[in-house]
Amino acid sequence: MATRVFMAAGKEPSMRAIAQEAGVGIATLYRHFPTRESLVDAVYQDQVERLTAGARDLLAEVSPATAMRRWMDLFGDWIATRNGMLDTLLAMIDAGEIAHARTRTELLTALTALLDAGRAAGDLRADVTAEDVAAALIGVFTVAPRPASEARAARLLDLLMDGLRPAR
């Protein structure tokens, strides 16, 4: 529930709004998450796990190119959720409460797995790095933030996928 609230929020939602969306009282929310930071940490870690597990799961289910495109949507969800908790998240990173470098490594590893599988299948270009794709994704979601610009983001992601395919 909190993930959905953070994703839809233009600015950081109140703990009361999160509790209301979850259908619980504010005291119940605070019993589980005594601080905003503890809630942000739980949501952030859950989203990172969804991205890393998502790459593995998608590769087991669909072709590497399809997995890459679907993973891009998961990345967009992560960015949208992160934006809804950005002030708290940045403060936590500055305080060393969240290991930003570790998260970056985990996400680049997931992207590398997708790219490697795509290269092996002949679906994705050999000269593209995980860092290239990550930078492109950040650019897409900067100019087409979700959920407000969902259609534009989808078009841009499709264009990015076209650019990731090897020349025929």
Instruction: Provide mean pLDDT, rounded.
Output: 89
Question: What is the third-level CATH name, the topology?
Answer: Tetracycline Repressor, domain 2
The structural domain count equals 1
Low-confidence stretches: none
> Radius of gyration, rounded?
17 Å
Overall geometry: elongated
- Largest β sheet strand count, sense and barrel closure: none
Q: Give the strand tally.
A: 0
Question: For the record, what CATH class applies?
Answer: Mainly Alpha
Q: DSSP helix count?
A: 9
- Which CATH architecture? Orthogonal Bundle
CATH superfamily: Tetracycline Repressor, domain 2
Series of secondary-structure elements, N-terminal to C-terminal: HHHHHHHHH
Q: Hey, roughly how much beta strand do the residues contain?
A: under 5%
Q: Report how far the terminal alpha carbons are from each other.
A: 44 Å
- Into which percent range does the helicity of residues fall? over 70%
Keywords: DNA-binding, Transcription, Transcription regulation
Organism: Streptomyces gancidicus BKS 13-15
GO molecular function: DNA-binding transcription factor activity; transcription cis-regulatory region binding
Pfam families: TetR_C_43, TetR_N
Descriptive terms for the model:
168 residues; 76% helix; elongated; Tetracycline Repressor, domain 2; 9 helices; mainly alpha
